[in-house]
């Protein structure tokens, strides 16, 4: 499967590691050439330095024949525009976006992510996954589950996650991506 991953930070790199390890054809796109070089030097991936939401950058990354795009940059808005461009310009079938802002994740706005609106097939939130994993493992007495729309977590005082806990959250997120890949 040909997959474009936009964003080569911790989340994008972990997704690229996982998908390239399963022998997918992966191209990583990031505006930071050093992060692209780190990915291409350590993983079996191709790399493109440029802005993920730009159509010409996605074209250079092979969007015309990509099966899936995963927008995992640090910007929710860049991730959403990237999915829109992938859909409207390149007709990429599966679009996954990392969204961090609770405003975008609120259940009452979930209708926004339909093909005729903002064509995002799967929304991932590593921060929410880490919080959920911490809740499951009872890692902190400071985590409070609030009864509200969907699963909203309030962490007070701030939760500091260890590398193992972050990896666990990324593993959970990878499982969601695997399910999306299987459904492609």
Describe the structure.
Helices cover 42% and strands 20% of the residues. With 184 residues, it is an alpha/beta fold. The chain has one domain (2-182): NAD(P)-binding Rossmann-like Domain (Rossmann fold, 3-Layer(aba) Sandwich), CATH 3.40.50. It has a six-stranded parallel β-sheet with strand order 3-2-1-4-5-6, with helices on both faces. A two-stranded antiparallel sheet has the order 7-8. It is globular and about 40 Å long.
Give a concise summary.
This protein is an alpha/beta fold and 184 residues long. Helix 6 packs across helix 7. The longest helix is centred in the C-terminal third of the chain and has 20 residues.
The value of Rg in angstroms is 16 Å
Shape: globular
Q: Would you tell me the structural class of the helices and strands?
A: alpha/beta
* CATH-defined architecture: 3-Layer(aba) Sandwich
Count of distinct structural domains:
1
Main β-sheet description: 6 strands, parallel
Helix amount, in percent? Answer: 40-55%
- How far is the first residue's CA from the last residue's CA? 10 Å
Keyword list:
184 residues, alpha/beta, Rossmann fold, six-stranded parallel sheet, two-stranded antiparallel ribbon, 7 helices, 8 strands, globular
How are the SSEs ordered, and which strands pair?
Elements: E1 2-6, H1 10-21, E2 25-30, H2 33-42, E3 46-49, H3 55-60, E4 68-71, H4 76-88, E5 94-98, H5 102-105, E6 122-124, H6 126-137, E7 143-147, E8 151-155, H7 163-182
Parallel strand pairs: 1-2, 1-4, 2-3, 4-5, 5-6
Antiparallel strand pairs: 7-8
Helix pairs in contact: 6-7
